[in-house]
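Retry 2 of 3 after timeout on previous attempt. Resubmitting structure tokens to design endpoint.
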């Protein structure tokens, strides 16, 4: 009897495994195209994101391009000690946080407001035209935008200052005074990114159940009441997730924007981590220093991301995990 029961149990286990395999094969035959489409993005992340990670070890070595990464000697954190002893590094870190914080305060709410305004437009034709016009700045490089800023806001030859002078006003130093430069920098950032970032919020708004608005209309709610009590609460999870990701990038800043819009007169506020890396690390051939600063940015960004996600979960909001 014992041998018979063991045999029955083993056969039943084999039947379960065979049944699972049949279901798996049927699922793969039905959805194999989805996995084929995943090959390219997975290959992209492996080749361009994971494989280069071994290069982080340059930050901990006296890197010599002729010896290569592995044969270069370890330096006992000497690169980090050198970087943390430079006043220019702390200035670059300060400026990075200041500019990203201003972008967060002015640039993060802008696409939300823009998406709500676009969703409230009744004319579909006007909405499509408006969206197209608002998306276009995203496709301009910061070199082009920097040239545009000079043509518009230059003290001597800028169009805006020429108009101000003809109207009897004094010209404004938009690009040569720190406070004015900060306003100009943030303004161009909002103009360049708001239309494109609004796409995500427009998608979230389009997923709201229309019956909620119909019920609110029956109850006598106006347009502002609908926005405050229906639209914003329904897109709040999207706002929270994007805010967490934005905070996680607060230590990261692109090279092209501050480099294209900055100049030596405002270098005290426009010199950020990316321009510091270019000047001190890459232009001088000090690749270990450039890698060390990049590694520092990644660690700080990860810490801010974890803190933002933890705070969101403590307030009962859904985080990114």
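Retry 2 succeeded. Sequence:
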């Amino acid at each position: 009897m014992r041998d018979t029961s063991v045999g029955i149990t083993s056969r039943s286990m084999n039947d379960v495994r065979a049944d699972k395999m049949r279901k798996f094969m049927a699922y793969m035959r039905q959805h194999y195209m989805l996995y084929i489409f995943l090959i390219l993005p997975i290959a992209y992340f492996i080749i361009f994101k994971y494989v280069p990670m071994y290069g982080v070890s340059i930050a901990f070595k006296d890197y010599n391009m002729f010896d290569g990464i592995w044969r270069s000697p370890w330096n006992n954190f000497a690169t980090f000690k050198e970087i943390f002893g430079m006043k220019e590094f702390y200035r670059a870190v300060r400026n990075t946080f200041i500019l990203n914080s201003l972008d967060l305060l002015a640039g993060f709410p802008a696409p939300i407001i823009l998406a709500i305004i676009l969703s409230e437009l009744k004319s579909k034709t006007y909405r499509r035209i408006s969206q197209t016009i608002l998306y276009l700045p995203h496709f301009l490089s910061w070199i082009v935008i920097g040239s545009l800023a000079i043509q518009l806001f230059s003290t001597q030859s800028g169009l805006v200052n020429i108009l101000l002078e003809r109207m009897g006003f004094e010209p404004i130093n938009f690009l040569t005074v720190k406070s004015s430069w900060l306003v100009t920098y943030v303004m161009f950032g909002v103009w360049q990114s708001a239309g494109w970032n609004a796409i995500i919020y427009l998608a979230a708004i389009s997923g709201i159940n229309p019956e909620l608005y119909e019920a609110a209309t029956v109850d006598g709610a106006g347009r502002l009441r609908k926005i405050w009590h229906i639209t914003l609460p329904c897109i709040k999870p999207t706002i929270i997730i994007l805010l967490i990701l934005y905070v996680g990038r607060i230590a990261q800043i692109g090279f092209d924007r501050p480099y294209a819009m900055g100049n030596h007169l405002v270098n005290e506020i426009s010199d950020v981590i990316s321009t510091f890396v270019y000047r001190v690390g890459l232009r001088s051939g000090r690749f270990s220093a450039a890698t060390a600063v990049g590694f520092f940015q990644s660690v700080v960004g990860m810490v801010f991301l974890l803190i933002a996600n933890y705070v969101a979960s403590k307030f009962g909001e859904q985080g990114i995990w």
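Attempt log closed. The two ends are 51 Å apart (CA to CA).
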